[in-house]
Amino acid sequence: MSERVGDARLGQYVPAPGVIDLAWGHPDPTLLPVDQLREATHRAMERHGPDILEYGSTAGSPPLINFICARLAETDARAPGPDQVVITSGASQGLDLVATLLLQPGETVLLDLPTYHLAISILSDHPVQLKAVASDADGIVLDDLARVVAQLRRDGELPRLLYTIATFHNPTGRSISLERRQALVNFAAQEGLLIAEDDTYRELSYDGPPPPSLWALDGAGAVVRIGSFAKSVAPGLRLGYVTATPEIASRMANGGLLDSGGGMNHFAATVLAEYAASGDYLRQVERFRDAYRGQRDRLLAGLATHVPDAACSRPGGGFFVWVQLPPGVVADELAPIAIARGMAFLPAHRFYVDGSEAPEAIRLAFSMYPPEVLEDAVVRLAAAVTQLRG
Amino acid sequence: MSERVGDARLGQYVPAPGVIDLAWGHPDPTLLPVDQLREATHRAMERHGPDILEYGSTAGSPPLINFICARLAETDARAPGPDQVVITSGASQGLDLVATLLLQPGETVLLDLPTYHLAISILSDHPVQLKAVASDADGIVLDDLARVVAQLRRDGELPRLLYTIATFHNPTGRSISLERRQALVNFAAQEGLLIAEDDTYRELSYDGPPPPSLWALDGAGAVVRIGSFAKSVAPGLRLGYVTATPEIASRMANGGLLDSGGGMNHFAATVLAEYAASGDYLRQVERFRDAYRGQRDRLLAGLATHVPDAACSRPGGGFFVWVQLPPGVVADELAPIAIARGMAFLPAHRFYVDGSEAPEAIRLAFSMYPPEVLEDAVVRLAAAVTQLRG
């Protein structure tokens, strides 16, 4: 009989003893709202009874759809109507569903690089081509997008979708400027290009309200915005949503997967709606923002103090700082030394398609640890840099 | 501001007033284990704390994987090891993941018809060809499978996967004979054909243990068995699993979707594991079997009494009876008359690809109503038949 996995950890992240691991964009577990979600589950089951365990409405549990519409009216520049929203099993599953339903084999997906590496993985599991577009400190470079699209067309290719993270970017932390956002959606509309806007970090805004989403600025139905509750509530619930035109929302809600299974995650979605209705959602988001803001600030201060000749992004939200290492310090050479000294990071090249770019940059996640531990991690990083250079 | 969907029903199934609706393979809501799942959620959150809300292990929550391995040792002829199991968001999502990860554009999926109509929908959302194979009262006809495969190859096509429901079939209720099962898996192995075995109804066995799965009989790694907790516990939880070779399981667990989101439905899966560990799962399955057995028996007795010249399948499990209507009675003509008299069904042609087959047959689901209501539905059906014929 094969061995049990009973002693295996529940979680995806397996800590290495003695290593402060800044490679993972996972929440600090001590911040997760265990008690409130337990109570919300109790109330939701009392309120709905067997309806919470049935096959759910295919577009998603109506109270959660209502909450999403109301919440986006507060956090974004435009709110969707309920017919423009579909509940997903997280942003990952939202992107996977977009790829299955909205892309044909052989079409090209554009990505401004660097980008979320696991979005590259999700898209790579579909029979599409991937094409890189340049980015700078303010996000995707529109001239390069236009150039790439034109070149693809000349080559007889079919550029169909741009995947981009416009706000509190993973891995760089930057946000596309307002002017560039509007120009981007205008370009997409005029070119018949869809945009899958990964808006996972909208709620984690530390210095004031987040910028308007591409979806909010788009009057032409070009943008499918992929939202998430992983970072604003908890990743293990597996809940997110899509806002899109009624036509695209309907295509998703009426596709085989949702028609067969009902709403993607009916039970959890209905629990989350109950949690949100209690006011706990707003309190939790504030709690996360306060904690993560402090963590961001301490990480940045630590870097400025201990690795002063690194150049670091200053994210207005999200989980990540992008660090250009001091000249001559190569991330792949630094990594084993850093681990030996008790900290870990992801090298920047992981966020490109072919792995050879940005050899002297790294991504640091500040989400998982309190400020003092983050400073400790930076001290270890600095020692590793010194060791490598010396 | 667009209207709220707040008054919309939570569920996918929207009852029509006065209509006994035998079109839906949904559970009787009064049987759903609301209290036990609420208590299991409480215990699971007490036991695991924040770990239940983190990104989960990608193959799925380990205690649920362990339960699946142990349970299949009891209900099937072979048990998987933990490295052969991946947790999905229901059987629907399991099939969708198989289609995304194991099929290339243009490959052909074979289906013995009639089959689960929404599996046709799920597969149709992927860039594959669908090809019908004949079936009879004992399931897929192997001579026709061999013929179709040979013809496809002569035509330069790539038959890659057979989708089939071997046990307590939807829509016909039949199960493939033991001899034919073994011959089928042998054929698949020798032809390099994968089989996606939809094993959704294994637990709902009313006349003794269910037959061994194709997966259990397969020594060559040809079968990917798709399991479900929708019918044995509750559909709204959105939980199922796949048993396959370690290579296929690993491909799924390490694909972009699961790598990005962690386990498909970590929170719900961990709750379900707690529920199962308490013994509630076994008690609930027995409860369902007793109720559904009685419902099946009353429906069949009612059909024998009130529509004696219909020919009905006698399912050993599952949710469905396949009814060959009396000669000359066309399902599409019968349907509006039946609805006017207060009952509904799905016409058999819905379970084929092109919709023109089996015009004089229907599928009846006995899952949603107690026995006396099912008999009432049959009386109404009989009256509709009489009206149509007269």
Give a written overview of the molecule.
2 copies of one chain form a homodimer. Chain A has 390 residues and is of the alpha/beta class. Helix content of chain A is 42%, strand content 15%. Chain A contains 13 helices and 15 strands. Chain A has helices at 34-48, 62-75, 90-102, 117-124, 142-154, 178-191, 214-217, 246-253, 256-261, 266-277, 280-306, 331-340, 371-389; strands spanning 20-21, 85-88, 108-112, 129-133, 135-136, 139-140, 159-164, 194-198, 223-228, 240-243, 311-312, 320-324, 343-344, 346-347, 361-365. Chain A has a 7-stranded mixed sheet, sandwiched between helices. The first copy, chain A, has a 4-stranded antiparallel sheet with strand order 11-12-15-14, with helices on one face. A two-stranded parallel ribbon of chain A has the order 1-13. In chain A, helix 2 packs across helix 10 and helix 3 (90-102) packs parallel to helix 4. The first copy, chain A, starts with 19 loop residues before the first strand and ends with a helix. Chains A and B meet through helix 1, helix 2, helix 3, helix 4 and helix 9 of A and helix 1, helix 2, helix 3, helix 4 and helix 9 of B.
